Amino acid sequence: SQAADLLVPGGALLVATNLRRWAPEVFLSRILSALKGRRISTRRIPLPPDFPHAPGETLWMKSVWITLLN
Predict the structure, then answer these.
(1) pTM given for the model
(2) CA 32 → CA 15, 38, 48, 51, distances in Å?
């Protein structure tokens, strides 16, 4: 939330982690909880093709673009 304090409306913040034990939904919920009360849009970024993972395996690399809305 402190990094988001530096954003002006329309500003974007890339939030990423490689913590395996967090499912993508948990990661996103943590972000939304930290930014509660702010008007934002989110865009998840899928793993690039050169970072494969096994079917059923929790994604280890997770990234989300957060944009502060007016």
Answers:
(1) 0.80
(2) 11, 9, 24, 26
